[in-house]
Amino acid sequence: MMNEKNGKSILLLIPFIFAGIILSIILKGWVLSILWSWFIVPTLGLPILSIPIAIGISIVVGLLTHQYNDFNTTDTKMSELIGKSIGHSIIGPLLTLFVGWVVHSFI
Question: What is the domain extent for residue 62?
């Protein structure tokens, strides 16, 4: 059962959660636009994606391929949940971009 203090702290986190989601969406679109220009444009001759178009494609692909992660919130500390969320939404795309950069450097 959630006590009043935990409820207030969660309510204070809501704006940061929304900001993090928006940042993650923009970051994934930015990474997609860069990887697209490195690998798809020279290979297939397709046009370069603008960041807004890449964000839209990223959203559609994310909706079609989303996998539910069951974070057991009763047994997990809030700091662990925040760490997993940051890892998934920010560090993941940046790591993907880094690996893409390494591969691109061999082309």
Answer: 4-105
State how far the Cα of 53 lies from the Cα of 29, in Å rounded to an integer.
8
pLDDT digits (tens, 9 = 90+) for 38-66: 999 999 999 999 999 999 999 999 889 87
CA distance 88 to 27: 12
Phi and psi at residue 70, to the nearest 5°: -90, 90
First-to-final CA distance of the chain? 56
What are the contacts of 5-10 at 24+ separation with CB within 8 A?
A: 9/78
Domain count, the chain: 1
Assigned token pair, 17: 């959660």
Longest dimension (CA), the chain: 58
Kindly report whether the global pTM for this prediction surpasses the value 0.70: yes
